[in-house]
Design a protein that fits this description.
The chain is α+β, with helices and mostly antiparallel strands. Helix content is 56%, strand content 19%. It is built from 6 helices and 5 strands. The protein has a 5-stranded antiparallel β-sheet. A hairpin with a 2-residue loop joins strand 4 and strand 5. Helix 4 crosses helix 5, helix 4 packs across helix 6 and helix 5 crosses helix 6.
Length: 193
């Protein structure tokens, strides 16, 4: 994005996870600092872009338009003059915003915004895909763990049934009652058996 948008000096990608924003990618430390101002204030163009699913362009932070006065003041102190924030939309899901910063006033125009929309869409699709894959991997791991626990429980039921001359259902009830009384997990009790 920085290479293809002439007025762009800095780029940051804000992603929401667990309802909280963080900068997932950035060009320089100054980008992190500018994003951090928004996170601390819980207000600013990139947060607004993500939360309201709309683009925000500020042509000159020196001319306060009243939308984000505290953020604008902090950016002016750093020398930042222009910004463009575009939501990261993948289908109906918004996962954050891509933020372009420019040292010059009026750094971004409608053509720049159209380029950034394309990049934002691809970025959002990638974030959603990675998030989905991560969720599937965690779920598969949980299933593996559940299957392993189930195997241990079945083996323990067999051991108890044979040792005490009872049915497997009665063996299961004994393990479950013991686990509850002693506040243990059933798979832990089964493993001990």
């Amino acid at each position: 994005v920085r290479r293809h948008v002439a007025g762009c000096d800095e780029v940051g990608v804000t992603v929401f996870s667990g309802g909280r924003p963080h900068t997932a990618a950035y060009t320089t430390v100054q980008t992190l600092e500018i994003d951090a101002v928004q996170y601390v204030l819980d207000d600013g163009p990139c947060l607004d872009a993500a939360r309201r699913r709309r683009e925000n362009r500020v042509d000159d932070l020196v001319v306060d338009d009243g939308r984000w006065p505290e953020f604008a003041r902090e950016c002016r102190e750093d020398g930042m003059r222009s910004l463009l924030a575009v939501p990261l939309l993948s289908g109906e899901e918004c996962v954050g915003a891509i933020n372009l910063y420019g040292w010059a006033p009026h750094a971004f125009d409608s053509f720049d915004a159209s380029l950034v929309r394309v990049a934002a869409s691809r970025c959002a699709d990638a974030i959603v895909a990675v998030s989905t894959l991560d969720g599937v991997r965690r779920f598969a791991g949980q299933l593996e763990q559940a299957m392993a626990s189930r195997a241990v429980i079945e083996q323990a039921k067999g051991v108890l049934a044979r040792t005490h001359g009872i049915g497997v259902d009665a063996a299961f009830e004994r393990m479950r009652d013991y686990a509850r009384r002693n506040q243990y997990g059933l798979s832990d009790v089964a493993h001990d058996v």
